[in-house]
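Retro notes, item 3 of 5
We never archived the inputs for the flavin-adenine dinucleotide complex last cycle. Fixing that now. Sequence and ligand:
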Amino acid sequence: MTDNERQGTMAETTRPYASDELAEGTIDAVVIGGGAAGLNGALILARSRRSVVVIDSGSPRNAPAEAVHGLLALDGTPPTEILRRGREQVRQYGGHVAFGEVVSAEPAAPSGDGDLRFAVTLADGRSITARRILVATGVTDVLPDVPGLAEHWGHSVVHCPYCHGWEVRDEPIGILATGTASIGHALLFRQLTEDLTYFTHGTDLDDDTRARFAARGIRVIDTPVTEVVNAKDGTLAGVRLADGQVVARRVLGVAPRMLARIQALEGLGLPVQDLPNASRGLASGVAGATDVPGVWVAGNVADAAAQVGASAAAGALAGIEINKALAIADTDAALHRIV
Ligand SMILES: Cc1cc2nc3c(=O)[nH]c(=O)nc-3n(C[C@H](O)[C@H](O)[C@H](O)COP(=O)(O)OP(=O)(O)OC[C@H]3O[C@@H](n4cnc5c(N)ncnc54)[C@H](O)[C@@H]3O)c2cc1C
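Structure as it came back at the time:
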């Protein structure tokens, strides 16, 4: 495992929280992933008197961040605190949240009246059967393989001007380019500091863009970056280039590859789409509907650019659609029993 692949698993060390038992029998909906998207979907379903279980492995994408920013009324709140409150609220309405990792999910034999069924299995061997599924497993951020970069992820190595931009304003910032997404990134970070250096790091930068950068005072360095350099106190101090020169920087902006966390969900056959910067996500339609009947998706797994608020909103919309679908199925079943 490389330094940066380790980043993707770093958050897995998050301390487990109190876990509910898995329900017996068939439940209305299982939500895979208990971040903002999954918990808001579960909240809507629990408040609709649906039996719902969230299964969550406890490694939300923003785990390294000290606080969530840009979220109305909750700006500055630690991500763990928002999720703790979210789990509490789901439970308050009778929903369940179980700590665990889903290792497979697949369609199962339909019920006697033809309604859909899915079988979901956890790493510890437990399993659960549900009528509908909401997939909200988020993404893994894959950083460029530069030694020393991953240890600063979410602190001095940042990806999102809206999440941590204000916090790094006026600092000497470097953009470590990963592809075309980094060009727009640079213009956004230029709004936050006048001291911005763009490290092309093997990516293309055409003359027109170089002229535009020059017009905004953005310095461009084409010599590849070989490592991140730390100060004595362990904070980020700069980057070393292939020619040995060290360029002092306090912050690095990186547009990572974002890969939907769906390895365990292949059995559902959900369509995957390629995104810019070699990223991958799940394809979805209105309110997270997918081509697979009975399966909805929400949050970063389907929309890598969604922040916490947008992810929560997507989960809520999917929850509403799942409740609607269940109401129709319940009515079909009632009619089936009468005739
Ligand atoms: C460093 C950093 C800082 C950020 N700061 C901000 C910010 O300040 N403001 C903001 O609005 N946004 C911020 N974001 C973006 C924010 O993290 C996402 O918008 C948000 O986490 C998306 O929510 P989600 O529910 O889709 O996914 P996640 O929050 O990633 O939650 C997915 C959940 O699914 C679980 N899971 C995955 N696979 C499985 C499985 N097989 N079985 C069971 N559970 C599984 C994971 O453990 C995780 O708990 C930041 C992102 C990063 C990387």
